[in-house]
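PROTEIN ENTRY
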Amino acid sequence: MTHSDTRADFRCETSDGWFVSGLAKAAELGPGPCVLSPLTATLPPGLADMACALPIGDANGQLLAELRSGRPDRWVLAGVFGCDPFRRVDDLVAELCRVGVAAVTNWPTIGLLSGELGSALQHSGFSYGRELELLARSRERGMYVAAVVSTGEQLEQARTCGPDMLIVTPGLAREDAAAMAQQGRRLGEELIPAARSALPDADVRLYLHPLFGAALEPLRSQVEGVVRHAGDHLPE
């Protein structure tokens, strides 16, 4: 299979997408975009957001093990942790190609982390830019690329890897409902319109984070579709 054939193999509809733990669940829930993330899809939403910063498992190890168990469906994106301290970007991309991955995204992402923790990770070499490097290398190998973004700065950075899809996320959930409502308004008034302007040909999706409740529902009309956490009202 050529690189161009690999990228063309990805197809998804505008129906809801999901973060899923396994290929079988992706087959059940498709054909909306399913982000395969065995580690984070089994965690509560708030903890899943922090998975990249906590010593709770090998996200890429679990991902690769699941991918080796069978070929992904046409609507599956491999959720890859781009700042993996134990695997080189080139090695990760080569293995993804070997197991037949057609689409990738940077999930889990350290892009959700700010403040002292975000600065400490950045100082240690764990940066959002490293995640985008993985996406860029994946695109060079012919894969469909989806960039997870939560700020305008990240959107500008993500443009450099030419993403086919943007997954807009509100960021970390807070205890203050008013603060989360403000985050939702920021997405609707700033980030989603900016994404439309910066990448008019990209498929824009919204992570309908369950902890944000109704704060994100009005934004559904501004995007092609949403991506939900696996624990958010899964069908029987």
Notes: The longest strand covers residues 144-149.
